[in-house]
Structure formats: structure tokens, C-alpha cells
Amino acid sequence: MWLFATGLIGFIGLKKTRYS
Questions:
Q1: Count of alpha carbons within 13 Å of 3, Cβ hemisphere only?
Q2: What per-residue confidence (pLDDT) applies to 20?
Q3: CA 3 vs CA 12, 16, 17: distances in Å
Q4: Alpha-carbon distance 5 to 20, whole Å?
Q5: Chain mean position to CA 7
Q6: Distance (Å, rounded) from C-alpha 1 to C-alpha 8?
């Protein structure tokens, strides 16, 4: 389950960097 959470956080971080 932690793997899914880590992937989700990484995905959000990637989108943030993209929009930034």
C-alpha cells in the first residue's frame, strides 16, 4: 500500500513541477 502512496505523491510532484 505504501508503494501506491509513494507513486501517487511522486505523480503529484511531477505535475507540480510541470505546471511550475
A1: 0
A2: 65
A3: 14, 20, 21
A4: 22
A5: 6
A6: 11
CA distance 9 to 6: 5
**Residue indicated by cell numbers 505546471:** 19
C-alpha grid cell, residue 17: 513541477
Q: What's the distance, CA 17 to chain centroid?
A: 10
pTM of the model: 0.28
d(CA 20, CA 2): 27
* pLDDT tens per residue, range 1-20: 788 899 999 999 999 887 76
What does the block give as the cell for 10?
511522486
